[in-house]
Amino acid sequence: MSEILLKNLSHITKELSERIMYSNPIGIVEKTKSGLDNLLINGIYFHSKHDPLVEAKRLLDGLKKSEEKKVYIFFGAGLGYLIQEALKLPNVQVIWMECYSEIIKQALAIHDYSQYFESGKLKILVKPFTEDSLFSTFKGISVLPVTFIPHRPSVAWKEADYTECKFICEKFFQKKDVNIATLSRFEKIWTRNLIQNFPEIHSLAPVSQLFGIAKDIPIVVSGAGPSLYENLDEIKKYRDRFILIAVDTALHILTGAGIEPDLIYSVDPQALNSSYLEGYSGSGYIVFDPTSSYHTLRLSDKFKTGFFTSSPFPLLQIYTKHLNVEAGDIPFGGSVSTNAVSLAELMGASNVYFVGQDLAFTNGYAHCRGAILEERLNFKESRYFRREKHNYNQLTALPKLKSIGYDGEEYHSNEKMQIFQKWFADRASGRNWINLSNKGAKIEGVPRKTFRESFETISSELIKTIQNTKKQIADQINYSASKQFDFEKFQLETNKIYSELKHFTITLKKGKELAEKIYALIQKKGSSAKEINELLSKMNQIDEEVSSKKNLNEVIGMSVQRTILTITEGYETNLSLEEKKNPHLGVAKKSILLYTGLYEGAYLIQRLLKKTNMRMSYARNK
Fold first, then answer.
1. Closest CA relative to residue 100, chosen from 61, 132, 126, 125
2. Which has the minimum average pLDDT: 98-107, 378-387, 413-422, 517-526?
3. Taking a C-beta distance cutoff of 8 angstroms, is the pair 65, 90 a contact?
4. 109 in Cβ contact with 21 (< 8 Å)
5. Burial of 440 by CB count in 10 Å (0-12 exposed, 13-18 middle, 19+ buried)?
6. Which helix or strand (DSSP H or E) is residue 449 part of?
7. Are 411 and 361 contacting, i.e. CB atoms less than 8 angstroms apart?
8. CA angle 600, 601, 602 (to 5 degrees)
9. What is the pLDDT of residues 130-179, one digit of tens each?
10. Residue 582: half-sphere exposure toward Cβ, Cα within 13 Å
11. Is the Cα torsion angle 569, 574, 580, 582 positive or negative in sign?
12. Of the four listed, 239, 402, 424, 434, which is most buried by Cβ atoms within 10 Å?
């Protein structure tokens, strides 16, 4: 084994190093006219027969030149001549994605990349590409301009593999964009909803009361996809043969057809979400995520009974730590449907059936006919705003993608829907999931059946057990959180946090003002180093004080996630060109962003806690 190979392998992770080391050579290595190596596999030469380095330089010369930092992602590179030339370019981060460890082993044996591995200028990924490996590789650089460079001979040799490699990379970047957009939009809404929901969830029962309650009983989870309309008659016909969990967006569609769900799952933080439940007075019980819109539980007395779930956000622990029972964790998949399916499993379902789970714009619609959003359009529609235009906006909000259905037809989809489609597909193995939806995208690993096949032959004994289980679900609402909660300890803790935040905001405001002074001095050319150093010394003291408040930082953390990502990952372009060129100015700007975000988050939570504490005390003494 060559010394160059061993030197290169010593600069990458142990797991990747071992995979490359123990792979076997592939193809035939021949000499070119310039004396460099060339790889021949299945009659395909991976480089020029004359001079591979000249060829590589000519290919890179065709790319757009600029002084800004950028990322080149190579999908295959043969023996690496393209990589060698790309590493010579200034302001370029190189990512080398290779489907075959056998090829990259030969490339690492003929050229020393160790200095580039060490500096971080070069990173390599070898199939299989996991979410963790992609995240660690692209951490901190995903906001930079990216150029995808497929290696033509590699693609000619194994087109499917290298095309898939490019597709995985595209999906990763698109998913990151979706995640950051979600944080930007919802971080403060989640915080506000969580704290303002404390008094209302106090009258609900922890969802853990439902775990295991429906052992060996079929549960149907109803989404609000366009095809739900076609299944309404079948749902009604076999309604006594399963437990029905409806997502909130499907509620009015089902009740409009005379179908009552047993449980109604609500998880969306937007205020608009409460409109899905307006006017409901049926027999179903709400299952409420505490980050959902705080308007929902205030709609009517109907929603003063039901169930609430736990949440991954630390803020909820202010409340749940004083419960004498577990609130109940529901795996969070990013949508109300994924959460509802997880709940069905935790309840002990024999099979979990999906209906209205299109994960596509079936027949050109975003939602099922009869959804509450359509009703709202009756009030909004005008000469200048038509419902067809609203539907078109929903269909074109993200780039159009295609998904194949169970019927072999192509369905219009998008990146967001395919993220959820993948969530189901990744978890389908070994689970008793069945799709009853008439149309929509196929979920790999989830078979499709009809209602007749699934429920026609259910025994009368099982039907009787299902009805008894429904009564047991109704009985669980008597175990509300208020009966299993230590209010005195909760009040002591919230008062303490409120008091600490009050003092903490003063420190954070000082940090913000100091950061602004440092920024102004750096920007002002000719400022004395002594003055800047004095301010930096004061800033260090504030940094240490803020860092020492670990508990308070955890409480504030959820409301400033976007700011934290801006600073640590560079996901947003908050820095001007001047700030990017001057690293000292850039650091000062990030310090301003951090302290501004922390101050605003601390002030928001302080205000909400005071209000919530007063409301809970009033309700208790009423």
1. 126
2. 378-387
3. no
4. no
5. buried
6. none
7. yes
8. 95
9. 777 887 787 766 667 788 899 999 999 998 888 888 888 877 776 655 55
10. 12
11. negative
12. 424
CB atoms within 10 A of CB 513: 14
Q: Distance between CA atoms of 307 and 297, rounded to whole angstroms?
A: 11
Residues 6+ apart with CB under 8 A from 214: 243, 344, 347, 348, 349, 469
- Other Cβ atoms less than 10 A from the Cβ of 583: the count is 9
**Token digits for 78?**
């043969």
Q: Which of 569, 544, 573 is nearest to 142 (CA)?
A: 569
β-bridge partners, 125:
97
Rounded distance between C-alpha atoms, residue 306 and residue 471, angstroms:
14
Burial label, 438 (beta-carbon count in 10 A; 0-12, 13-18, 19+): buried
Q: Where are the alpha helices (DSSP H) in 381-528?
A: 387-395, 415-427, 451-455, 460-475, 487-523
Helix (H) or strand (E) run with residue 293 in it:
none
For residue 572, what pLDDT band results from cuts at 50, 70 and 90? very low
Give 398's Cβ-side CA count (13 Å radius): 19
- The pLDDT tens digits of the residues spanning 281-327 come to 899 999 999 989 999 988 888 888 999 998 877 788 888 888 888 88
Interatomic CA distance for residues 454 and 234, integer angstroms: 11
Helix (H) or strand (E) holding 592: helix 583-621
Q: Tell me if the pTM is above 0.85.
A: no
The Cα-based distances of 491 to 199, 290, 437, 550 in angstroms read 12, 19, 48, 21
Q: Collapsing DSSP states into helix, strand and coil, what is residue 26?
A: coil
First to last CA, the chain: 80
Instruction: Note whether 514 and 543 are within 8 A (CB).
Output: no
Structure tokens at 445: 């690993």
| Cis upstream peptide for 206 (omega within 30°) | no
Query: What are the tokens at 167?
Result: 């597709």
Q: Is the dihedral of CA 29, 31, 37, 38 positive or negative?
A: negative
Domain ranges of the chain: 3-176, 204-484, 487-621
